[in-house]
Specification:
The complex is a heterodimer of chains A (117) and B (117). Chain A is an all-beta fold and 117 residues long. With 117 residues, chain B is mostly beta strands. The termini of chain B are far apart. Classes of the chains: A mainly beta (117), B mainly beta (117). Chains A and B meet through strand 6 and strand 11 of A and strand 5 and strand 9 of B.
Chain lengths: 117, 117
């Protein structure tokens, strides 16, 4: 079974600065999807960014980018120019590509990000 | 864009009673829906996968007779917590997949906070 590990329970960053959240995963599959979700106090799960494992290029969405190291099974999230609205729980998640019910998301335990003004 | 509506957002019930939580896809047909449970300050744990027109697939350790799932249409899945107990108090979140392809994204509802007294 796949597992996702987020080793940083909490992180903090000054507004306008850059922060990197770590995520590692374990799988025997060669193709899969990786995601970062944001969960603000409202508890709504919001997709931040996704990466297909077969793509070597790191995904980027505005101020959010990832460092995907497939061999190391690492998938870190970099938030540039941090804003107060970025404060939230961030979850790293893994999803298999295959069918048969394997489409479920496996989540890490989350990292609580605080943005200091 | 695709929206998943979850109702109610909060519910308080007495021990021994049953509670029904609805998850609706508002502008798309959801062939598959997922039910997650989130304890305070913890990650989301998949409870079951709900497939329209067929029985739900439950994760190991989840009691199917206690957490009844019905996916009677392409836009509605319901989770019924039967004979609720205080330990069932938690945050329940549903997600729905748009389409059936491997690339199809998951959209999350706003969650339901269940408190059993």
């Amino acid at each position: 079974a796949q597992t996702v590990t987020q080793s940083q329970p909490e992180m903090s960053v000054q507004e306008a600065e850059t922060v990197t959240l770590s995520c590692t995963y374990d799988t025997s599959e060669s193709d899969y999807y990786l995601f970062w979700y944001k969960q603000p106090p409202s508890r709504q799960m919001i997709l931040v960014i996704r990466q297909e494992a077969y793509k070597q290029q790191n995904a980027t969405e505005n101020r959010f980018s990832v460092n995907f190291q497939k061999a190391a099974k690492s998938f870190s999230l970099k938030i540039s120019d941090s804003q107060l609205g970025d404060a939230a729980m961030y979850f790293c998640a893994y999803r298999s590509v295959g069918g048969g019910g394997s489409e479920k998301l496996v989540f890490g335990k989350g990292t609580k990000l605080t943005v200091n003004p | 864009g695709a929206v998943v509506s979850q109702h109610p957002s909060r519910v308080i019930c007495k021990s021994g009673t049953s509670v029904k939580i609805e998850c609706r896809s508002l502008d798309f047909q959801a062939t598959t829906m997922f039910w997650y449970r989130q304890f305070p300050k913890q990650s989301l744990m998949l409870m079951a996968t709900s497939n329209e027109g067929s029985k739900a697939t439950y994760e190991q350790g989840v009691e199917k007779d206690k957490f009844l799932i019905n996916h009677a249409s392409l836009t509605l899945s319901t989770l019924t917590v039967t004979s609720a107990h205080p330990e069932d108090s938690s945050f329940y979140i549903c997600s729905a997949r748009v389409g059936v392809g491997n690339n199809s994204p998951l959209h999350f509802g706003n969650g339901t906070r269940l408190t059993v007294t």
